Amino acid sequence: MKTRHITILYFAALREQAGKEQETRSTAAQTPAELYAELQAAYAFDLPQERLRAAVNHAFCDWQTALNDGDTVAFIPPVSGG
Fold first, then answer.
1. In which domain, by residue range, is 36 found?
2. Three-class SS of residue 8?
3. How far apart are CA 80 and CA 56, in angstroms?
4. Does the residue 81 lie in any domain?
5. Are 67 and 6 in contact, with CB atoms under 8 Å apart?
6. Domain CATH number, residue 29
7. Into how many domains does the chain fold?
8. What is the mean pLDDT of residues 8-33?
9. CB neighbours (10 Å) of residue 37?
10. Which of these, 23, 28, 22, 20, lies nearest to 1 by C-alpha position?
11. 14, part of any domain
C-alpha cells in the first residue's frame, strides 16, 4: 500500500473539532472518502460525509477522486449565512 503525504485544510466546525487549521498527514487513503473516514475516526468529526464537499488542490471534486502524494485536500462543511 502506497503512503501519500497529504496536506489537509480544516474549515468551520471541522477546524474546531480537529483543533487546527491544517496538517500534513501520511496516509494510505486513496480517495477523499477514505481520507475523511480516517480523519473522522481520529478526531470524532460529527458531520457525515454527505453534508460536506471535498476539494483537491483547490478544486471541488468527487469523493472517489484519486489522491496523489503532495495533494492538498479540504473538506468544506455547509455554510450558514446570517
1. 4-76
2. strand
3. 23
4. no
5. yes
6. 3.10.20.30
7. 1
8. 96
9. 14
10. 28
11. yes
